[in-house]
Design brief:
The chain is an all-beta fold. Helix content is about 0%, strand content about 55%. The chain has strands at about 5, 10, 20-25, 35-40, 45-50, 60, 70-75, 80-85, 90-100, 105, 110-115.
Length: about 120
C-alpha cells in the first residue's frame, strides 16, 4: 500500500522559511518521480515542484523559482521541499504526490500559513 506522509508545515511570518518533508512507503521509491502540490483556500490544485526518480531533473512553478528547492534522499525514501522567502500567497495545504502505474497517490497534506 502506497503511503505518503507529510510533515513540517506551520505558521511562519512573511519572509520566513519552512522545510516540508514527505516520507514514502509501499512502493519502489527510487523508481518514481515525486511532486509537491498545493491548494489555497478557494483555489484549485497547483503543481509547486517536482523531482525525477534520480533527483537530476527538477521542476518549479514560475512563482516558486529561486525561493523553493526540492530534493530527495532515496536511501531514506523522503522528498523535501525547502521553502524560503515565504509570502502570504504561499498559504495553502501542501501535498506530496507520486504516480504509480497511472494512478496518483496523495498524502494527507500539511498546512502552511504565512502571516504576520
Amino acid at each position: 500500500e502506497v503511503q505518503l506522509v507529510e510533515s513540517g508545515g506551520g505558521l511562519v511570518q512573511p519572509g520566513g522559511s519552512l522545510r516540508l518533508s514527505c516520507a514514502a512507503s509501499g512502493f519502489t521509491f527510487d523508481d518514481h518521480a515525486m511532486n509537491w502540490f498545493r491548494q489555497a483556500p478557494g483555489k484549485g490544485l497547483e503543481l509547486v515542484s517536482g523531482i525525477s526518480w534520480n533527483g537530476r531533473s527538477t521542476y518549479y512553478a514560475e512563482s516558486m523559482k529561486g525561493r523553493f528547492n526540492i530534493s530527495r534522499d532515496n536511501a531514506k525514501n523522503t522528498v523535501v521541499l525547502q521553502m524560503n522567502s515565504l509570502k502570504p500567497e504561499d498559504t495553502a495545504v501542501y501535498c506530496c504526490n507520486t504516480r504509480k502505474l497511472g494512478i496518483d497517490y496523495w498524502g494527507q497534506g500539511t498546512q502552511v500559513t504565512v502571516s504576520s
